[in-house]
């Protein structure tokens, strides 16, 4: 079995590549990082260490790599022969891989036209659907209808905390022991071979919303509030009791939405929150607030981890003040080397915070959630 995986970064090597390899796939990573591509190709394996007490290390084998910059035709050929294509490049990068993926699909249509699953493992609602739209935009009518007959793009939710890596070995990844990969089985081609370790569900929305609006909402809240208090890592931030209780407040707000909307058991969801806060604190990890808060414009967008649950809470007459505080803290996220942070700060300087909130969240100035964000923003500035 063959897999092509776009993005040999932290989650690509530390989770998706690992699981696919353990399931018996030969994994071909595709990346723009030439050093990582060369090393994967040369060694054909890499180590993954679990951030737990005994720090178990597994060697991921049967891997290779191609450059998405210089080897587009080889990548297309690999896609034409693969059983599965996965991505973990970042949702805003999907547009850059759509062309080569479309090339691979065209080649496959002219050849085996065997069933192909394409799964975007990004932190986004409907990531694979977004990728499909980008790929289909590059295909003509005939190729699209051919692709319809053999390719499926099931949406997915992926969960495993993998911080930035700093080791002498550029391939080594340290990951938390916990993982969850949930795939929408209703979008799979009938007769598919399940991947061990993947949880297939016929209705993904409760799973992706629970993950994004708990793990990621809590995570970015800790990052934004933590940055404001001068903490450099999530672990430092989570040692601050006041901050932790603010993060918990946020998760109680999103939890109320999730419980009401999806019928999650209240006690069970409360345990889920406890477990996530414990994962954030994992002393065996060093996870920088700058990584977790990265791309604040994406995180403030209407369909993402802050605005979406706040709007759903508003629609249901539930509380969203703590979510508004996290959004206000996101507006203050001013870190070097993050182009979205720079754009946000430039917009605040040029247009003011109110217009900036409207521009990036889509919330009109007279919307209650917008007003609440502004109140919290002014409060945080004091
Ligand atoms: N790290 C985590 O804890 C985690 C957990 C769950 C989901 N995710 C999601 O996984 C995705 C990747 O996150 P990450 O933390 O692994 O980031 P990362 O930066 O470590 O990895 C992204 C990789 O994509 C590569 N890339 C960039 N442009 C590319 C292109 N055009 N073609 C091929 N490769 C390209 C980069 O070189 C990099 O190796 C994001 O959507 C993130 O939200 C991350
Ligand atoms: O990857 P992002 O930028 O969407 O979010 C940053 C972190 O919250 C995220 O990477 C988590 O570590 C991950 O989603 C845990 O499953």
UniProtKB/TrEMBL annotation:
GO terms for biological process: mannitol catabolic process. GO terms for cellular component: cytosol. Pfam families: Mannitol_dh, Mannitol_dh_C. Keywords: NAD, Oxidoreductase. Residues 1-189 form the Mannitol dehydrogenase N-terminal domain. NAD(+) binds at residues 3-14. Residues 203-351 form the Mannitol dehydrogenase C-terminal domain. GO terms for molecular function: mannitol-1-phosphate 5-dehydrogenase activity. The keyword Transport does not apply. Its EC number is 1.1.1.17. It catalyses: D-mannitol 1-phosphate + NAD(+) = beta-D-fructose 6-phosphate + NADH + H(+). Belongs to the mannitol dehydrogenase family. NCBIfam families: PRK02318.1-2, PRK02318.1-3, PRK02318.2-1, PRK02318.2-5. This is Mannitol-1-phosphate 5-dehydrogenase. It comes from Paenibacillus albidus.
């Amino acid at each position: 079995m063959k897999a092509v995986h776009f993005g040999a970064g932290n989650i690509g090597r530390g989770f998706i590549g690992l699981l696919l390899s353990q399931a018996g796939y030969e994994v071909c990573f595709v990346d723009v990082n030439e050093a990582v591509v060369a090393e994967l190709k040369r060694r054909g394996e890499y180590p993954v260490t679990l951030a737990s007490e005994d720090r178990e290390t597994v060697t991921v084998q049967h891997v290779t790599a191609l450059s998405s910059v210089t080897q587009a035709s080889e990548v297309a050929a690999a896609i034409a022969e693969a059983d599965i294509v996965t991505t973990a490049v970042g949702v805003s990068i999907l547009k850059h891989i759509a062309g080569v993926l479309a090339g691979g699909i065209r080649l496959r249509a002219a050849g085996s036209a065997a069933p192909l699953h394409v799964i975007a493992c990004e932190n986004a609602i409907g990531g694979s659907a977004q990728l499909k739209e980008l790929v289909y935009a590059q295909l003509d009518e005939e190729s699209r209808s051919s692709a319809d007959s053999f390719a499926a793009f099931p949406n997915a939710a992926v969960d495993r905390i993998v911080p930035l890596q700093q080791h002498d070995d550029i391939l080594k990844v340290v990951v938390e022991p916990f993982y969850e990969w949930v795939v929408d089985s209703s979008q799979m081609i009938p007769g598919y071979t399940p991947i061990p370790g993947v949880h297939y569900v016929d209705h993904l929305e409760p799973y992706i919303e629970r993950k994004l609006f708990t793990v990621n909402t809590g995570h970015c809240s800790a990052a934004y509030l933590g940055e404001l208090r001068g903490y450099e890592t999530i672990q430092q931030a989570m040692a601050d009791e006041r901050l932790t209780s603010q993060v918990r407040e946020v998760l109680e707000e999103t939890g109320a939405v999730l419980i009401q909307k999806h019928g999650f058991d209240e006690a069970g969801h409360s345990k889920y929150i406890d477990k996530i806060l414990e994962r954030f604190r994992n002393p065996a990890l060093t996870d920088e607030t700058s990584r977790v808060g990265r791309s604040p414009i994406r995180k403030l967008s209407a369909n993402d981890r802050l605005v979406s649950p706040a709007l759903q809470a508003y629609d249901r007459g539930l509380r969203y003040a703590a979510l508004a505080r996290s959004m206000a803290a996101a507006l203050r996220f001013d870190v070097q080397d993050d182009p979205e942070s720079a754009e946000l700060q430039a917009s605040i300087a040029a247009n003011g915070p109110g217009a900036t909130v409207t521009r990036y969240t889509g919330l009109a100035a007279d919307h209650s959630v917008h007003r609440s964000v502004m109140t919290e923003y002014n409060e945080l500035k004091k």
